[in-house]
Amino acid sequence: MATEWRTWNVDDARAHVRAPLADDDKYSRGVLGVVTGSVEFPGAAVLGVSAAHRTGIGLVRYIGPRNVRREVLARRPETVAGRGRVQAWLLGSGIDPTRRSFLLLGDLQHALADGVPVVLDAGALDLVGTHTAPTVITPHLRELVRLLNAREIPSTIEEVRADPGEWARRAAGELGVAVLLKGATTYVCDPSGNHRVVTAPTHWLATAGTGDVLGGILGALAATHHGELAGDAEALTDLAATAAWVQGEAALRASTANGGGPVAALDIAEAVPGVVGALLAG
Length: 282
Ligand SMILES: NC(=O)C1=CN([C@@H]2O[C@H](COP(=O)(O)OP(=O)(O)OC[C@H]3O[C@@H](n4cnc5c(N)ncnc54)[C@H](OP(=O)(O)O)[C@@H]3O)[C@@H](O)[C@H]2O)[C@@H](O)CC1
Ligand SMILES: Nc1ncnc2c1ncn2[C@@H]1O[C@H](COP(=O)(O)OP(=O)(O)O)[C@@H](O)[C@H]1O
Fold this sequence. Notes:
This protein has 282 residues and is α/β, with parallel strands linked by helices. Helices cover 47% and strands 13% of the residues.
């Protein structure tokens, strides 16, 4: 029987964003720990952290190489550098998995052992399955193929491109985690059989760094919904679909602000507050 994919819409997204209340403080709203970026890709860290702040979060802690930390703090001085207690992790964007230092691997393993929800992207995708915390992986097509083949689940780019939803579903089942497979159509599913689909409202999204922005949005949503996730790990699937929806709408807003013209990844991060505000006003 064909899998039914539920189209994630504005009302679904609205149900998964939240504004702070009178009795909130920065800690109760949720803290996101971020291990992203590298000497080769410092921008990925800046993009993810910026997007997390713009999605609305209590605090972001960033852990990474000194030069990357400097870039992150120059762009987002509200970021706190170094370790501390967090309610969710974003790991791997802007990291080459073949060039991880022992120090970096230690930081990643420390995060994975924490037990709080984890978003695994790019250079941390191969660590899936080394921990038990609620997890969503955010590969693009090539990354999914690499991951599946490394787990002895043979697949080719052509096969996955021909039926991305089915491969996302299979990956979720085999790997035992939620999967967000990126593309013009983004498929989000989990081993429990939740299937969400988000169609991008603009193809200007197909530009460098927009996946890093998505990671930041999703990390922030996971951290701010930590209470709900503690009681219902499957909620991560809906938060992932919401992140993809918000990212798409932010790209559309950023493009519309320029007459329907192109957007760069940081423009999308900067447009996220408008999307969240409109959802909350909804
Ligand atoms: N600002 C930042 O810091 C950014 C940082 N980023 C970070 O970069 C990391 C790697 O992410 P990624 O998705 O690019 O890596 P990956 O899946 O290995 O794809 C490589 C494939 O692309 C292909 N390819 C390359 N050039 C090509 C060309 N001219 N024309 C056609 N094909 C070309 C290449 O093919 P090949 O050259 O091997 O034939 C290979 O198949 C990741 O950590 C991410 O977070 C990004 O988010 C960007 C912004
Ligand atoms: N043709 C397209 N139309 C709309 N959105 C796209 C298209 N191609 C990719 N995307 C979206 O753009 C983002 C690209 O992410 P990713 O491949 O990780 O790039 P990067 O690593 O450069 O950030 C994803 O959110 C994906 O869903």
